[in-house]
Structures are given as C-alpha cells and as structure tokens.
Amino acid sequence: MIEVTVEDRAGGRTRFAARPGERLLHAGLAAGLGLPYECATGTCGSCRATVTEGDVGSLWADAPGRRVCRRPGEILMCQSAAAGGALSLKLPTAFRDRREPECRSLSGRLSSFRRFTAEIGTFSVELDEPVEHLPGQFALISAPGVEGPRAYSMTGNPSTEPRLDFLARLSGPGKLTPRLFSNALEGREVEVFGPLGRAALRPEDDRPFVAIAGGSGVAGMLSIVEAALARGHFDRHPSRLVFGLRSMEGSYLLDRLSEFVRLSGGLFRTTVAFSDEAPDPEFEAIFPDLEFTTGYVHDVVRSGLSSISADRPICFVAGPPPMVDATMRMLVVEGKVSPAEIRFDRFG
Amino acid sequence: MTASDDFAWEPLDDVDDLEVGDRRELSLASGKLVLVMRTETGLHASCADCPHQDTPLAEGMLDGSVLTCPLHFWQWDVTTGEPLGVAELPLEIFELKQEDGRWWIGMRR
C-alpha cells in the first residue's frame, strides 16, 4: 500500500492508504475522507489537487475535467493513481463533512436490462452483499474490457436487498452504455463503487421539496420520491417534481410517476414539460394523474417561483449541464434561493 | 486606514460605460486579469477567476452586490469580498480610485 497525505485549504491534514494503480479519489473516499468531487468520472474538474511530493500516474490524460489543471503538479484525483513511494496532495478547498454512507467497492452481475426508448433503459446489478445508499445517489460501474468507470444513478428506494437498479442513457463517448443497450453484458461481472453524490434526500429532511429533472436526471428523483412515499413524507410536506422531456414520443417512466402520484393521494404532484412540442390531449388522457405543459423546465419552475420563495423547499436539480445551469441561475438569481438550499447533479 | 503608497496603481480604461449590473473582464498592462463591476453603490473590482476552480467570473451572475460563480455557485459580496452561501473562500477585491476623470486600480505592493 502507498501512504497518501492530504492537506486541505485550511491546513487540515490526514492520511489514507492506496493500492498501486487505485484511483486516489476512490481510495480516499473509501477511507472515509471528505474529498471534493462532483462527477467522479473525469468531466467536471471538482476533484483537483496539487501533488506536492511523490508521483502519480494518469489514468485518462485527455479527461475533459483536466482543463482546470493549469498549474504544475495539478491532477484530478478521480483519474490519477499513486505510482509508488509516499505521496502528498494539497486541496484547493476544505475537507467536506461526510454525511453520506461509506463508499466502497463491490462486485456484482448485470441483469434485467430493459429498453424504454432508443436512448433510455434500466438495468440492475445483483450484488454479492447489500450496499447502503441515500435516495438520489449514484454509483460508478466498471465492466471488464470497458475502459474506465461510468456513473449511473440508483432509481429505487434503498433497501436491504443485495441489488441496485439504475437508469442508463445512450449518449456521448462512453463505451459501457452502448454495450448495455446491445445486451452484450447480461450476466457479466462488474465492479460497483459507491454510493456517491450529495443531491440526496437525507433521513433528517423534514421539509417539502421541489425536484427538477431533465431527461435521465429523473433517475435519482425516482429514488427520492419512492423513499419519500415509504416514509410518509408527503403527508406532512406536499412536494413536486418537474420533469423535462423533449417530446411525447421520447417520453418514459410516466406510468411509474403516475403510480407515485396516486400512492401519495395527490400530495406529490408531477408536471411533465415537453421542450419541443405541445402535449396532445389524447396523450394527456393516458396519464390523468400527471400535469403536462410546454417549455423548458426552468421556465416551468419560474412560473411557480413565488411559492418556492415562500415555502423554502429543498430543491433537487439533476440533468444535463445546460439544463442544470439554466435552472440554477433562475433559482439563485431570480428566486433568490441560496445555493446552500439546492442539491444538484450535472450529468455530463 | 490603508495608505495609497501601499499600492501600485494602474490605469483602468473602458469602464465608464458600465451600467448597474454590468461586469467586464479587463486585462491590465501588467497582464493581470480583473473583473470590474458596477453596482448601486459604485464601481468594484475583483480577481477575474473564481478562487475555487479558476472559472471566469465574467460568466457569472451579478445581482445587487452579490456575485455568483456559474460553476459551483459560490457567492460573494463584491463590496467586501466576503463569502456567502456555499463559498469557502473570500474573493480578492482591489482598491479603485478616480483621479482627473480616469479610473485607477490598486495592486497591493
């Protein structure tokens, strides 16, 4: 094992051990450290650190997130591994409080891939043992023969079953999702690292929430709503989901959202916003429990901003970066919502 | 009180047209990048990049005296540099003065 010393901006210093070749972010998180990260897959740049002593190997030299590494010695901890000998890192931020379940690496088998549209599907990983997570968190999945891990959000209410359910979107340069969609990986062994992410519903949350999801960003919201239903959250705090999709033809999971609305007795409301077309009355009639509208999700949320300002709900925001950024700008600038009240995940 | 001699002053051109709510990234003669903003209380100048991830703050949002970084939504009061909300670090603020109808920005020596 390689000893890694980490110093944060405030001068706090701690140590963890990493195996040769192990991703530094994974090793640190698994050791219980509050290291900074967001995507954990090399895109966002949030896990930047400076190597002050020792050497690291880069696992993805062209990672998009490396654009933030502009000075000598700067690395992304999610895409770097200890190369041997003692290693010292310096963080540009403070250690975060760890309020989420411990991260760890587990093995499991892929199963139950189900395709909803040309680019959206769900699948499960049957684990060797259960893993604790919060509703709204995600995990990294690595498959043999597929370079690098890929992030997927858990869609179910956390349970003691040794299984995790995920939503997958076929897009971008990732190599794992296309193989899921071609059913080439059914039954294959995979490694799961997690749980990750802070855009989660916590046990102590006792306020209404507004969940704002674009496309596959709805994955974590499914988990949050299911968990909220199970704990009777909506009886005390009526809450809402705004789900942005492009078109009726490309829609998915509306039957499951309808069921959530029914189970809540209408105390949980869902508005589906189509960006590219107006909802057809015949389509709306298929899902009488849902509300439909036209426009981008941030515009739909803007129309209800006065109630957000008055009720001070928890705001969950997840989806592609342009959608998350537009929604955050609207909430922060127009709604005067403190960023501390918003839990967001950008899906690169 | 800070003496004016504590600063190296550089001229700051191209700011007179800034209206309340406007901000502009400027490159000083020394090569340093700064962000100049106008609020209801006047003209203010800060470092151009977020102290968190070096994101250009010209792409952020200025609302009253609150500047918000567009990447992780760190916020500051631009009149003092005080961190707000989720920000973990203060924002470096530069002295400004107007002499003979021209704006100057002071870099601490």
Secondary structure elements and pairings:
The complex is a heterodimer of chains A (348) and B (109).
Chain A: E1 2-7, E2 13-18, H1 24-30, E3 48-53, E4 56-58, E5 74-76, E6 80-82, E7 87-90, E8 104-115, E9 120-127, E10 138-142, E11 150-153, E12 163-169, H2 176-181, E13 189-196, E14 209-214, H3 218-230, H4 233-236, E15 239-245, H5 254-263, E16 268-274, H6 281-286, E17 291-294, H7 297-302, H8 305-311, E18 314-319, H9 321-334, E19 342-346
Parallel strand pairs in A: 1-7, 14-15, 14-18, 15-16, 16-17, 18-19
Antiparallel strand pairs in A: 1-2, 3-5, 3-7, 4-6, 8-9, 8-13, 9-12, 10-11, 10-13
Chain B: E1 7-12, E2 23-27, E3 33-39, E4 42-47, E5 61-63, E6 66-68, E7 75-77, E8 82-84, E9 93-99, E10 102-108
Antiparallel strand pairs in B: 1-10, 2-3, 3-4, 4-9, 5-6, 6-7, 7-8, 9-10
Pfam family, one (chain B): Rieske
Keywords (chain B): 2Fe-2S, Iron, Iron-sulfur, Metal-binding
InterPro entries (chain B): Rieske_2Fe-2S, Rieske_2Fe-2S_sf
Structural overview:
Chain B: GO terms for molecular function: 2 iron, 2 sulfur cluster binding; metal ion binding. Chain B: Residues 9-105 form the Rieske domain. Chain B: This is 2Fe-2S ferredoxin. The complex is a heterodimer of chains A (348) and B (109). Chain A contains 9 helices and 19 strands. Helices cover 21% and strands 32% of the residues of chain A. In chain A, helix 5 links the parallel strand 15 (239-245) and strand 16 (268-274). Chain A has helices at residues 24-30, 176-181, 218-230, 233-236, 254-263, 281-286, 297-302, 305-311, 321-334, and strands spanning 2-7, 13-18, 48-53, 56-58, 74-76, 80-82, 87-90, 104-115, 120-127, 138-142, 150-153, 163-169, 189-196, 209-214, 239-245, 268-274, 291-294, 314-319, 342-346. With 348 residues, chain A is an alpha/beta fold. Chain A has 3 domains: 2-90, Ubiquitin-like (UB roll) (Roll); 104-196, Translation factors (Elongation Factor Tu (Ef-tu), domain 3); 209-346, Rossmann fold (3-Layer(aba) Sandwich), CATH 3.40.50. Chain B is built from no helices and 10 strands. Chain B has strands spanning 7-12, 23-27, 33-39, 42-47, 61-63, 66-68, 75-77, 82-84, 93-99, 102-108. A 6-stranded antiparallel β-sheet of chain B has the order 1-10-9-4-3-2, with no helix packed on it. The two termini of chain B are 16 Å apart. The relative contact order of chain B is 0.23. The mean pLDDT of chain B is 90. Classes of the chains: A alpha/beta (348), B mainly beta (109).
